[in-house]
Structure formats: structure tokens, C-alpha cells
Amino acid sequence: MALTKEKIINSIYYQVGLSKSQSRAVVESLLEIMKRTLENGENILISGFGKFEVKKKSARRGRNPQTTEDLQLRARRVVVFKTSGVLRNKINQSL
Amino acid sequence: MNKSQLIEALAKEENLPLKKAEEVVNTVFGDMEKALVRGERVEIRGFGSFKVKHYDGYKGRNPKTGEVIDVAPKKLPFFKVGKELKERADVEY
């Protein structure tokens, strides 16, 4: 079963001891702060977990693989995640 | 922004004591970490999802010396950015 926002909200409720509605509000708020930070082009580093980075991709010529039509892809910004070595080791311990 | 700055920002925005904000941030990333260690997916609508990909071992080569080496099987988390974050991050620059 996948970990969802609902389950995280429940964890906050049981472990941090905030009310249910406050637990929901803080989780939404945390996610919003992270989205806003990345939107502003700033990276987020969570030590022991990983790093969310905003990368600039320059414009390039692409092709629609279905129609083989050439097209110009504009410059974009994308969010990438790099797993911390600590987390990577923990995940591989169960191998 | 690092974790302590994220904690401060959350405390300020939600009027929480720093200690509580820290517990919230640690619980959120702790839950995600536990799920990934168990091999479970993490799915946060609007932000993104993580899943653990398995890579088989293979025979590789040290590009410098040409020596054949065994690369062990490994698992790596893979993050797929959610629709909302993807659109918001992709501003003109």
C-alpha cells in the first residue's frame, strides 16, 4: 500500500499530538512551502533524505515520435530529486 | 533551503512552536523513508511520487583500466514530480 497524504496526516495526529484539522493544515502548509521554494528556483536539501533541485533545461529541437514531426522544445525548468547516500544505503540494506 | 529553514518557515506560517514544527517535518520525511525502505510507493498529490526501482546486477568495466567488475544489484528511489509542482516550477526564465 502506498503512503499517501492522508496517512501522513494520521501520523502527525498520533505522533505529534496536534488536532486532526491542525495536522491536515500543517501537512498542506509544509507541502506548499516546499512547492513555493522550488517555484522560486531554490533547492531544498533534507539531510539524510535527499535533495530536491530545480534544473534549467535549455531549448532543444525535438521530434514527435508518433508523427516524426520536428518541433522546437522551449527552455524549461524541471524538478529533480537526488537521494541522499544515507537513505540509499538504508534502502539497500533490505536487499 | 535546508531542513532547519523549512522547520522555521513552517513554524512561522502555522504559528507553531519550533519544537512542534520540527516534529512535523521529521514525521513527514520519516514516514516517507520508512515506506521506501519497505519498498512501498509514496504518493503525494500535487507534489510528486516516489517509487523504488530495482536494478539487476551486471558486469561492468572500469573505464580507466578496462578491468571487468561485478556491479551488484541495487535499489534506488525514483521521484516523479506531480502535475501541480511540475507546472509551477516551470516558469519562464
Can you tag this structure with a few keywords?
heterodimer; A: 95 residues; alpha+beta; HU Protein, Chain A; 2 domains; three-stranded antiparallel sheet; two-stranded antiparallel ribbon; 3 helices; 31% strand; B: 93 residues; two-stranded antiparallel sheet; 5 strands; elongated
Radius of gyration of chain A: 19 Å
* CATH homolog superfamily of the largest domain in chain A: IHF-like DNA-binding proteins
| Topology order of chain B in helix (H) and strand (E) letters | HHEEEEEH
CATH structural class of the largest domain in chain A: Few Secondary Structures
Write the CATH fold name of the largest domain in chain B.
HU Protein, Chain A
- CATH architecture heading of the largest domain in chain B: Irregular
Q: How would a crystallographer describe the biggest sheet of chain A?
A: 3 strands, antiparallel
Number of domains of chain B: 2
Mean pLDDT value of chain A: 93
Shape call of chain B = elongated
Number of helices of chain A: 3
Number of strands of chain B: 5
Beta-strand proportion of chain A: 25-35%
Can you tell me the residue ranges of chain A where pLDDT is under 50 for at least 5 consecutive residues?
A: none
Strand order of the largest sheet of chain B: 1-2-5
State the helix count of chain B: 3
CATH architecture of the largest domain in chain A: Irregular
The rounded distance between the terminal residues' Cα atoms of chain B is: 20 Å
**Domains of chain A (count):** 2
